[in-house]
Amino acid sequence: MTGPFPEDSAARKTFPVFSGVLRYFPAAIAAVSHHSYLGNEKHNPGESIHWARGKSDDHLDAAARHLTEGDLRGAAWRILAALQLEEEAKGAPMAPGARVVKPFPCAAEPSTLDRYLISGAVQEDANFAARVGQPETPTVEFEADPKLQALIERSDEEAPLDGLTAGKAHMTEFGPNPVDGEGG
Questions:
Q1: What is the pLDDT of residues 60-83, one digit of tens each?
Q2: d(Cα 106, Cα 104) in Å, to the nearest integer?
Q3: Cα dihedral: 136, 142, 144, 150 (round 10)
Q4: Mapped to the 3 state alphabet, what secondary structure does the chain carry?
Q5: Nearest one of 95, 82, 130 to 4, comparing CA atoms
Q6: How far is it between the farthest Cα atoms of the chain?
Q7: 169 pLDDT band (50/70/90 cuts)?
Q8: pTM of the entire predicted model
Q9: Predicted confidence (pLDDT) per residue in 133-155, tens digit
Q10: Backbone angles phi, psi at 98, to 5 degrees
Q11: In the chain, domain spans
């Protein structure tokens, strides 16, 4: 496969993009394309329209959220994004309108678990979680102000509660922690 379609001419005819998609759903395709435009204006202001991959990779969770909010355009875009990634994982070329971006140095490629969930195969494989274990969590290293670093390294028992409004609110509302008698 050199593009998204098979090389065999007879097999290519089984992919009727115009008559099987554009003619079926012209208003829906127009709505999703406008959603793409609005998303580009929000996430890539001043840049030509493109799918900036890496800025958000939780397509199926986002699709479900859009559905619960009644946003069919956003849900459709996210489902198309997940489907595009699934097809690329099977060998389709990267979408020409996509750019790979990583907004933070710790951003990682989708984990094995993410790719597996997108494929839908996890529903058929009950032992998957046991085989892959926990996905690695990216870490961020930075040089902290020495005073901040000292506070981070102090244990909870030594940490001061002064100035921690949430801690005080918890102590006021719920009283001391029943385990150690301290607040928080």
A1: 999 999 999 999 999 999 999 999
A2: 5
A3: 40
A4: CCCCCCCCHHHHCCCCHHHHHHCCCHHHHHHHHHHHHHHHHHHCCCCCCCEEECCCCCHHHHHHHHHHCCCHHHHHHHHHHHHHHHHHHCCCCCCCCEEECCCCCCCCCCCHHHHHHHHCHHHHCCCHHHHHCCCCCCCCCCCCCHHHHHHHHCCCCCCCCCCCHHHHHHHHHHCCCCCCCCCC
A5: 95
A6: 76
A7: very low
A8: 0.54
A9: 444 444 445 565 666 566 656 54
A10: -105, 150
A11: 9-103, 105-137, 142-184
d(CA 157, CA 184): 11
- Contact predicate 170/153, CB 8 Å: no
The letter for the amino acid at 103 is P
The CA R_g of the chain, rounded to the nearest whole Å, is: 24
* Long-range contacts at 20-29 (CB < 8 A, ≥ 24 apart): 28/76
Q: Identify any residues that bridge with 99 across adjacent strands, giving them in sequence order.
A: 52
Residue 150 has a CB neighbour count (10 Å cut-off) of 10
Burial of 59 (0-12, 13-18, 19+ CB in 10 A): buried
